[in-house]
Amino acid sequence: MTTPAEQLLPGTQRALLHRIATAQTEGRSPSLAAAVQRQGQTVWNGSRTCVDGHGPDTDTQFRIGSLTKTFTAVLVLRLRDEGLLDLADPLEKHLPGTGAGEATIHQLLGHSAGLGAESPAPWWERTPGSLRPELADVLGEQTRMHAPGRRHHYSNPGYTVLGALIETMRGAPWAQVLRRELLEPLGMHRTGPQPEAPHAGGWAVHPWADAMLPEPAEDLGLMAPAGQLWSTTADLLRFAAFLAEGDDRVLCTASVEEMKEPSAPPESGDWEGNYGLGLQVIRRKGRTLVGHTGSLPGFLAALWLCAEENVAAVVFANVTSGPLIGEVAAELVDIVAEAEPRIPEPWRPLPEVDAELLALTGPWYWGTRPNILRLTPDRGLELRGLRGDGRGARFTARPDGSWIGLDGYYAGETLRIVRNDDGSVNHLDLGSFVFTREPYDPAADVPGGVDENGWRGLGG
User: Fold this and answer.
1) N or C terminus: which one in the chain shows less Cβ crowding within 10 Å?
2) Three-state SS for 431?
3) How many Cα atoms within 13 Å fall on the side-chain side of residue 423?
4) Domains of the chain
């Protein structure tokens, strides 16, 4: 059981406040709101504003832009988990006639379907969605910029297509499905496609003068699944808690974890960032952050979750450009993780020990390379190189007595325990590689055999 999160130390709280104050001042944002969660509980929130006494609180709505895509991705994964589609299915199978039908649902989720980044003119973020009443108006004449599956190319129209897929398969509008299947179960009552007071107004700030201009807040129509939502810091932290552990009322843990896995090669030169299924994935300071950033005219938003530290941060600003919101949110996670590192749970022995599994643990050799096989608390197995090198992985049992790799080099590969006629273990077979109890054990069935003269010195 997770221990309740303790309140942050005063020094940590001041560092967080200093960071958002600097962001609001240097980024020249009319207002900026932020909140931090640790172990599923809100431990800090703060805001800065140019209007004295009117700072936004955790219940103030801001537009979250492309963070909406993560919500849309969850709805698609729900369809998959219900058996209504496969992520490898071409779009044409479920939504014919789009002109982008050869792209798979997986490619659309991970922005590798090759579709264009934006819809045809006029600029969709500042014009009514009624100007694009059909999918053809969103996709345009040139539906494909790149061959599907070849590269990551961020696509707003791609998520419009996924929204249409959801509506077709559910027989209901995207916003209605979202409310029923995700927002209500998670208690996100202040998140929705239209603003509800109290909410921030969107502004543009002149790049060379301290002057402001109001931005329009258009209904995006068919583009809504790519960027329509409004939300609060409190609601997005509820969503962050869901992304940390899953929630069977919405999406199981395994499917949420699948969303966090990189889905396509990163852009050339960008080895610190990647994209999963509706989630951005970045590496910084030895930690992995998952989440999403978002922007629409008048608004910036970011949510980052660090699973290793169980810390999440949300940042909003009501300005078209200025503060580097994604960086600010990541730095809030850094501040908490570095000032108050996570205290690990107490070590506890297994509730029960399976003697047969216990007998498999210990050293195993792939040729002459030593590895260690360990029993994990969830009755799984973990194989790692003795010196931290080699191809490690975790495994979970299958009903037929074999094991399937969960991660690393052997993800999806089969581990088999090969036994002698008397039931004793001869060797482990992992994707055709043989692991033996001794280096090239002559008693084991090693491909190519073992020289009958055994090990020898230079003169042998």
Assistant:
1) N
2) coil
3) 2
4) 14-339 (3.40.710.10), 355-436 (2.40.128)
